[in-house]
Design brief:
set domain protein methyltransferase, domain 2, elongated, transferase, SET_dom_sf, 4-stranded antiparallel beta sheet, 497 residues
Length: 497
């Protein structure tokens, strides 16, 4: 279905040198927005779209380029200024045909109200992250955008550079920008951003080649890998020509002034053609792109080290908690940044190995703990790292600990600890139960209640993982008890015989 805004975009793209296969159909509906579907079978290897770099909205191509560079603003900050500037020009902007298609802002938690963030994201992986994001983005605006209005009073319309406009531009960049090349950096790529995301089901690849004559560097042409930068898709080098069904085909095969969308899978007639923004769980999808996917197998739940310390302090003295965690760190199981340490619980409910080792160390008998602590202290006195490693590797208990499987680490005490940690993590969601969240999701509309809908999907997916963690711990505890009972029976039988 071609709506008025879609027809306007097509006219703008044609006049700016964009090319796309006649096998692609652009569909615009109130329920799902814009999607790209196949009018006939499309084969892997087909180049289905080409986008001129000069028609992408970047710092370099924007009319605000001089203002941005004079203010030494780069990256996302500079791109946000470019978007706000072009929007301020309205019909006079070279990108008016593209900008008219974009929403004022994407429905990212970044642009939700503080009350909505607290209410809808409470307990989730995103709650604290979004709070911090909002504070940092506001600081960026106050320190970098406001001074621009004073230094460029005749060139900038203040109505388009307020804090709300800045947040809106940031939401568009987060959800729609691509890494183009070293010269252009990140930018808005019309046509490429029409393809919707589906986790683990990529049909089409976004491909960009760096151009020597556009960059001040003398490096060879190189591929820009956007997946490594957690952007809209991964990139790889291609030397495919333009598909025979391509409209307005006049670009040479290896022309680095163009970006390409290349099919990596066959797609049947009538099917939607998907890009992928990376292998991401729902927290990352909602955070960066403003949507979630039900039954996303890449979902995880994090249990902060701080929560583990709270649990530990409820059973043992603070001195014991600190000393056991300190030993765990010295053994090399913690991350480099102590202030943001956490443990992942996978989609299947399996806890991270480092968490199990920490819990195992916490429950070590005092005599075993002191021997291990002394061994590590002696090893730390070695000046040469190779000698220290050799000493640690020769320690029988350390060797046993490093070779332990998850099954071996799942003692009754560790299982009980995981059950308690699951309950503590669950309590962060507030008084509403999982069943309440499921009912809220059923009542919400994907179109009318986007914030409630996607936050509900996130909460439900996280809480189901906590359920799986409890099942994992309970099942492991039963196996441990049966194993212990079997060993006890064997010992009793031997004594009797």
């Amino acid at each position: 279905m071609a709506t008025r805004r879609l027809r306007a975009l097509k006219r703008w793209m044609k006049s700016n040198g964009f090319e796309w296969s006649s096998a692609l159909q652009f569909v615009d509906t109130p329920e799902e927005g814009i999607s790209v579907k196949a009018l006939c079978e499309i084969n892997a290897g087909d180049v289905v779209a080409k986008m001129p770099k000069k028609a992408c909205l970047t710092i370099k191509t924007s009319g605000a380029c001089e203002i941005i560079e004079n203010a030494c603003l780069g990256g996302y900050l500079g791109l946000a200024v470019a978007i706000m500037y072009e929007r301020s020009l309205a019909e006079e902007s070279p990108w008016e045909g593209y900008l008219q298609l974009l929403p004022q802002q994407e429905c990212l938690p970044l642009v939700w109200s503080v009350e909505e963030v607290d209410q809808l994201l409470c307990g989730t992986e995103l709650h604290q992250t979004v709070q911090e994001d909002k504070a940092l983005v506001y600081e960026d605006w106050r320190e970098n955008i406001l001074p621009l209005l004073d230094s460029e009073p005749s060139k900038l319309n203040p109505a388009f550079f307020g804090v709300e406009q800045y947040f809106a531009a940031k939401s568009l960049i987060s959800s729609r920008s691509f890494e183009i090349d070293d010269y252009h950096g990140f930018g808005m790529v019309p046509l490429a951003d029409l393809f919707n995301h589906k986790t683990g089901a990529e049909d089409v690849h976004f491909t960009a080649l760096s151009s020597n004559n556009e960059s001040e560097d003398d490096t060879d042409d190189e591929i820009v890998d956007e997946e490594a930068l957690a952007q809209n898709s991964s990139m790889d080098k291609t030397e495919k020509g333009v598909d025979s069904d391509m409209e307005y085909s006049s670009i040479t095969e290896d022309d680095t002034s163009m970006l390409e969308m290349v099919m990596i899978k066959d797609v049947s007639s009538g099917a939607e053609v998907f890009n992928t923004y990376g292998i991401l769980g729902n927290a990352a999808l909602l955070h960066r792109y403003g949507f979630t996917e039900q039954d996303n197998t890449y979902d995880i739940v994090n249990i902060d080290l701080e929560l583990v310390l709270q649990w530990c302090s409820s059973l043992f003295s603070n001195r014991r908690s600190r000393s056991r965690v300190s030993l765990w760190r010295r053994l090399g199981y913690s991350s480099d940044t102590e202030n943001s340490e956490y443990f992942e619980i996978s989609f299947d409910g399996e806890p991270q190995m480092e968490l199990l080792i920490l819990l195992y160390i916490i429950f070590l008998p005092d005599d075993v703990y002191h021997k291990l602590d002394l061994s590590v202290a002696v090893a730390e006195n070695f000046h040469e790292s190779s000698e220290k490693t050799t000493f640690l590797n020769d320690n029988i208990f350390l060797k046993k600990l490093s070779n332990m499987s998850k099954k071996t680490l799942m003692t009754k005490e560790v299982c009980d600890a995981l059950l308690s940690l699951a309950d503590m993590r669950e309590s962060l969601y507030g008084l509403k139960s999982l069943e309440d969240d499921i009912e809220a999701l059923k009542r919400s509309s994907f179109v009318r209640d986007r914030k409630l809908y996607h936050s509900s999907v996130l909460r439900i997916s996280e809480r189901k993982i906590l359920q799986k963690l409890r099942n994992y711990a309970s099942k492991s505890c039963k196996i441990t008890n049966l194993s212990s009972a079997g060993k006890k029976l064997k010992r009793t039988t031997k004594r009797e015989s």
